[in-house]
Amino acid sequence: MTALAGFALFALLITIAPGPDTLLVLRNCMRGGRASGAATALGSAAGSLVWAVFAALGLAAVLQRWDTAFTVVRLAGAAYLVFLGAQALWRYRPGKSTDGTPADAAPTSAPTPAPTAARAFRQGLLSCLLNPKVGVFFVAVVPQFLPDGKAGFATTMLFGVVDAVIAGAWLLTVAVVATRALTWLRRPRVHRALERTTGGVLLALGIGTAVESA
User: Fold this and answer.
1) What is the distance between the alpha carbons of residues 94 and 40, in angstroms, rounded to a whole number?
2) What pLDDT, in 10s, does the model give residues 40-81?
3) Is the pLDDT of residue 15 over 70?
4) Euclidean distance between the first and the last CA atom of the chain, given in angstroms as a whole number
5) Long-range contacts of 92-96 (CB under 8 A, 24+ apart)
6) Hey, where are the domains in the chain?
7) Phi, psi dihedrals of residue 115, rounded to the nearest 5°
8) Measured distance CA(103)–CA(120) in Å, rounded
9) Contact 214, 74 (CB under 8 A)
10) Which residues have C-beta within 8 Å of that of residue 167, sequence separation ≥ 6?
11) Residues 162-190: pLDDT tens digits?
């Protein structure tokens, strides 16, 4: 029980550090409100749980040792982040409104199409699944919280459920807080600035992930 509590605290500290999942939740909250943000959060939590299954089956350990597979998944994740970031930057490029007309010809920006719950869930899921470091996290961290340093299938899954619940709860909290500020966030200038900032950060994270050593 002490080991599980220690892991929960460690997982919480890792989770609250801003990353791609948090940015996606915020972006989808701006686009589709609480439902889209919550769906993104649940998708990310589901992805964490899937990685826990992989770790329990030993696949994450294989990925950690097999440089080629790790690099392929890492580059796929980087490409996905670059795509999301570039998409946002292109839609909100300077001099254009969200519908592609000159910005000075439109006093307000046309609203960005809200993602469906299924699409938002899929974005959160893919963001997590295409991050091999989540799987390596389970392989490297879970054994450190066990007395004998070994984690069986049931134990790894238990820790995985704890991590998924913590991640889901935190990201849902982010979604709720962001939703309360939607009136301000959806002001045309604020919305464009946040979309460009989010797109730029996602693009930078993707490029950084692509060029970092495996």
Assistant:
1) 28
2) 999 999 999 998 888 888 776 666 566 666 677 667 767 777
3) yes
4) 34
5) 92/192, 92/195, 92/196, 92/199
6) 2-8+21-211
7) -70, 145
8) 28
9) yes
10) 11, 15, 21, 41, 44, 45, 48
11) 999 999 999 999 988 888 777 666 666 76
